[in-house]
From TrEMBL:
InterPro entries: CBS_dom, CBS_dom_sf, Ion_transp-like_CBS, UPF0053_domain
Keywords: CBS domain, Repeat
Domain CBS stretches: 85-141
Protein name per UniProt: CBS domain-containing protein
Entry keyword Repeat: yes
PANTHER family: INTEGRAL MEMBRANE PROTEIN, UPF0053 PROTEIN YRKA
Classification via Pfam families: CBS (PF00571)
Classification lineage: Bacteria, Bacillati, Actinomycetota, Actinomycetes, Kitasatosporales
CDD domains in alphabetical order: CBS_pair_CorC_HlyC_assoc
Domain of life: Bacteria
Source organism of the structure: Streptomyces sp. SID7499
Alphabetized SUPFAM superfamilies for the sequence: CBS-domain pair
Entries under PROSITE patterns matching the protein: CBS
Length: 141
């Protein structure tokens, strides 16, 4: 059916859209400090509505991210989560196509990417779920 072909073409074109169109801008992102406790991570996740929270170090450098699951099952609720629990974050440029972003995230084994602007500084974040929602959601329409 012609409509099916058109839908497929539209979905494939979406893969060329830049990641900057679906990222969460830095001013709407919640980051946590490296020394956060399981209790603190749970609070931050609930308050923000995000399950993956970027982790910054003493110099505000991006170290990775904690997932809310990292806080679950930790017996000591008031001690800092270990650095071994950090998940990697990759960096992509704002104009990176969505399909290339997905490929890079899968290759790195990460679900969170920092989006860098024209000057190379982080201006937002995108999750694998955000990218897949755009690509798969559009194909399902």
């Amino acid at each position: 059916a012609p409509a099916d072909g058109e839908r497929l073409r539209d979905a494939l074109e979406l893969g060329t859209r830049p990641v900057g169109e679906v990222m969460v801008p830095l001013n709407r992102t919640v980051t946590v400090d490296l020394g956060i406790t399981p209790q603190g991570l749970e609070r931050a996740a609930v308050a923000s509505g995000f399950s993956r929270l970027p982790v910054t170090g003493p110099d505000d450098g991006l170290l990775g991210y904690f997932h809310i699951k990292d806080a679950l099952g930790v017996a000591e609720r008031t001690e800092a989560l270990p650095t071994s629990a950090l998940h990697p974050v990759i960096r992509v440029e704002i104009d990176t196509p969505l399909d290339d972003t997905l490929t890079a995230m899968r290759a790195a084994g990460t679900h969170l990417a920092a989006v860098a602007g024209d000057k190379g500084t982080v201006i937002g974040f995108v999750t694998m779920e955000d990218v897949l929602d755009e690509l798969v959601g559009a194909a399902a329409l």
